[in-house]
Amino acid sequence: MIKAILIFNNHGKPRLIRFYQYFPHVFLQTEDMQQQIIRETFHLVSKRDDNVCNFLEGGSLIGGSDYKLIYRHYATLYFVFCVDSSESELGILDLIQVFVETLDKCFENVCELDLIFHMDKVHYILQEVVMGGMVLETNMNEIVAQVEVQNRLEKSEGGFSAAPARAVSAVKNMNLPEIPRNINIGDINIKVPSLSPF
Amino acid sequence: MALKIVKGSIDRMFDKNLQDLVRGIRNHKEDEAKYISTCIDEIKQELKQDNIAVKANAVCKLTYLQMLGYDVSWAAFNIVEVMSSSKFTYKRIGYLAASQCFHESTDVIMLTTNQIRKDLSSPNQYDTGVALTGLSCFVTPDLARDLANDIMTLMSHTKPYIRKKAVLIMYKVFLKYPESLRPAFPRLKEKLEDPDPGVQSAAVNVICELARRNPKNYLSLAPLFFKLMTSSTNNWVLIKIIKLFGALTPLEPRLGKKLIEPLTNLIHRWEEIPSLKVCHMLISLSSGMPNHSASIQVSLRGPLPINSMFVVLVKYLGLLAMSKILKTHPKSVQSHKDLILQCLDDKDESIRLRALDLLYGMVSKKNLMEIVKKLMLHVDKAEGTTYRDELLTKIIDICSQSNYQYITNFEWYISILVELTRLEGTRHGHLIASQMLDVAIRVKAIRVFAVAQMATLLDNAHLMTGNVQRKGICEVLYAAAWICGEFSEHLENPTQTLEAMLRPKVATLPGHIQAVYVQNAAKLFATVLKSQEGNTDSTAAQETSQLMIERLPLFVQSANLEVQERASCILQLVKYIQKLQQKDVEVAEEVIALFDGELNPVAPKAQKKVPVPEGLDLDAWINEPPSESESEDDQPKAIFAKEETKHSRTRHTEVDEKELAKVSWAEHATQIVYLYSGVYQEAPGVEHIPVVQIDLSVPLKVPGLPMSDQYVKLEEERRQKERVEKKKKDKKKRKEKGGGRRKKRDSGPESEEDITPAHMVDIVTEEMPEVQQICANRTKDKKSSKHKKKKQKKEKEDKEKKKKKKHHHHHHHSDGGGEESVQNGTMEEEEPLPVTSFSLSSSSKENDIQGNLQDGSQVVVSVIFENKCDSFLKSMEFNVLDSLNSKLQRPEGSGPHDGLTVPFQLPPGVSNEARFVFTVQSIVMPQKLKGTLTFIVKDSSTHEKLDFKLHFTCSSYLITTPCYSDAFAKLLESGDLKCSSVRLEGVSQPFHHLLARICFHHHFSVVERVDSCASMYSRSIQGHHVCLLVKTSGQTVSIDAKCDEPTLLGNVLDEIKQTFSQC
């Protein structure tokens, strides 16, 4: 079973965290505990050279040597999978590769910025690869196909961040110093039709 | 209304979406927390709105903030709201947020059951998919129970996308709601053969996880997996299946054989794929099933790629696999030793740690020094304290495993330990210290060397204490000081060491170390005095005293209580010594006597076996016991059980405080109890403690700090020499034999056993002499000599007992009803009745009846047959006429009147013993059994017959059982016992002889004796308590007795009377 998937950058800033196991703590809140785990894992992983092997024993917070950390380092990002003994090390390493390649396909030349601004999308892609800590699909074509179908479905519903957001972003990106809160309703209405009724 | 909607959408346009939030946070690097808190306020406002789109947007942003570590549990209800949106877009956001934030203790989960059920049955497969994905993350036992059926239906959904998700989530459901496994399993099994590879893979995945928890239940699926393994092309599935077989093969060994073929096929298939993938599979193979020899051939291909060294990953995995193989097939790994040693040089810590693990299992007498030398090199090179500490503990683990089994030269080991103390910043000072102590105490031959090394350490103590970082290592000084003090007679320059121990710097050490310093300075002082008083010049001795008096006040002022106390004691002592010295009195001998005695290693549980000195009642109250008002359980059995546990607790009141202090701290240091032999010399039993002491080869003096490397060379030479000697011997032997045998002894590399260690460790085993044996000997000594014949018999019996004890190591002397056979004394012998027969003069039989009791109804009678004639006796048959009460136990199938064949023949003058088991029902009456022994005298080949009687006395049913006075008193008070008494006149024996006779012949034990009055106790094999109160005045002895069975009591008293009337 996969216990957690962590993606963070070279400075330890989390870009995606996905815990499949609840790590309770006596004093800490769930979120604080998760942050501690990220920090510990980053500490363990970041001090390793790039040409050493990709496996190490888990930190004390996630259960020590019962768990293994399997990671890959791509440019600015670390992809770390925390797994128990039922998973094959090389299998997981392969899986990370599949995941990253899928991201690359979905985002077209994926970079850290894509992950920063589209955390939700990354999650949706990951959901097609791993479910509840178990490997769901390793076939990249299948993953990409399912992700695309769902994106289309979202679009057909009028999108969440699609049309209106784009319009709004366009307005915002005009570098107007301040967008007044009370804009004349008439003006705006012209743009609204693209919004689907609620 | 319409306006409101429009207004809402307008507001929404200017709400931040996720991207804006991210951008905002990035733009507010300096005051991120403040910016986020305003964002959270905005989100709270948004969540209050009715518009679901606004809410969804807010929840999406919350998911991001959750990642950054912000608590969003307050929005749990809003998340549920978004989850229940009818639109896929929002639903997905809701489920994502829920899967990130919810866990089992989130209470709103209860509200989601119906929503999830609705989504699961949604016509849109992606609604269902999203719900399944979300559910897989936050499924609770309640949800699992309520939704198990819905999910089970989905397992046969038309869309493979749903099927695979449903199959996978079943594992989570099983975990939370195990009852669902049984109904779901057939369908799960069916999915193993699903046409869609994704669904198939999910099913394999689930079953592998299940099998990992309980492999036995999944053996029946082996053929199915077997088929899958040969047909599947999905590597992921194959790895999982191989792992599964790894769990199954230990349960079903036949599987291993079957697997070889498909596995080798797989490997051939994979060999075509270059590099990684090959190793990939090989390693999962090897780690999967190290238990089967056949798979070993396959798996040993795993480590192969290490040779090529081109893939780090494979190296790691190879090592991992090897450590698994090492457990079952150590030989096959040992050949890779060099390879593994190379891995220690790897720059990757993961790999080095794995290699270290392997080394532990690989050492032998032959390669230990070499391996440790390598490790020492790494210790020097290693940066980072964790790895260095790991190395250090591994070195010590490797060397000390199984009682220093692999160490052949302890000087080498001591020098390794000393070298280790030079490590910076290690936390394991105490570990090194305990090793030093252990070795110095247990290996006597090493003490001279160890003391010299420790003295150097003490001299250079500033190196260890100077640096704050080196705190951990100063623990070593504790060991050094103690060794120097305890074995100070071996010191070359005790004055210098004493000086070193009293340096002002010592006061900066931790308290417990200072305390040891002070105490051992006193020991050293004694040694120094002794050497100096021998000289004519007395000023030297006085100077030493002066030194002590000058330096000790530093410790008297110590904040540590222990240090203070010891220091002031010793200071006063030294002052007194100084006074005596000024009067020219020689004091050295007396001072030395303070610390007299030598430490012997004793097994941890040895104390239990030290016998309680006679007359010492450990349970007697020293002061008046507090009045007991609580009613005790008067069931006698319970009392005895309690007593037994008390009995095993031995207290030593004679040990003086100093010894106690030593014992206790030595115990602290090494978990082995060391006792001063001097204290216990008088105590019987201690001298029987088997302490192996063999001192071989003369230790070499190495000046200064030793380099362990020298020993490696020396050891080589020593072994060489030994080998040469051995060869010489062999040659001699062969010469002596005159070349009778031409078999060549292999003169190749020496085998493990050939390497004899240079020093022997005192290995303390659990085998201790039994207390009882000693007691038995004692009673024998006390016994006044009787007829010669009787004495012979007794000796035999003692021998007998000893023999028996060897078989029953844990011999509880008071356990009558238990399963263990209980030793019992002899039965009063009935002389073989001389029935008129000419052959009687030629053969004699002694029936020495050892009542060996089991189940309270069995008596073992051992009969000694002695052939006194000149002819060979054979075909002996022993037969007893059974009574209603007592029956000879005959082998099954034989009639009640058949005799038992005695399993031996008797040449002239030889005696032998045979045992016969009798079943006795009632033990309250004595009885005599008539029997015959038939045999054939070889020369005349005639059948002869000898009649005899076996006398089963009541005393022989009693077992010597110790009892304590308070239990005894309770027993008497209980009122269940019947009373009876007897008077013996004209007994001229001393009282203690009388008691000893009762003890010996009738198996009583003395509970308490006061002057001419004694209470005695015994117990029958059927659990009757027999209590006696024996009083004597002049020549009259009166015995008052109590027993719960009056008939038995009467008979026992009659027998006692008989015993005394005979003499």
Report mean pLDDT of chain B, rounded to a whole number: 72
What would you call the quaternary organization? heterodimer
Proportion of helical residues of chain A:
40-55%
The whole-angstrom Rg of chain A is 20 Å
> Helices and strands of chain A, in N-to-C order?
EEHEEEHHHEEHHH
Largest sheet properties of chain A: 5 strands, antiparallel
Average pLDDT of chain A, rounded to a whole number, is: 79
Total count of strands of chain A: 7
Report the portion of residues of chain B in β strands. Answer: 5-15%
Q: How many helices of chain A?
A: 7
| Poorly predicted ranges of chain A | 175-198
**Outline type of chain B:** extended
- Compute the separation of the termini of chain A in Å: 41 Å
Domain AP complex mu/sigma subunit (chain A): 1-153
InterPro entries (chain A): AP_complex_ssu (IPR016635), AP_mu_sigma_su (IPR022775), APS3 (IPR027155), Clathrin_sm-chain_CS (IPR000804), Longin-like_dom_sf (IPR011012)
Organism (chain A): Gasterosteus aculeatus aculeatus (three-spined stickleback)
Protein name (chain A): AP complex mu/sigma subunit domain-containing protein
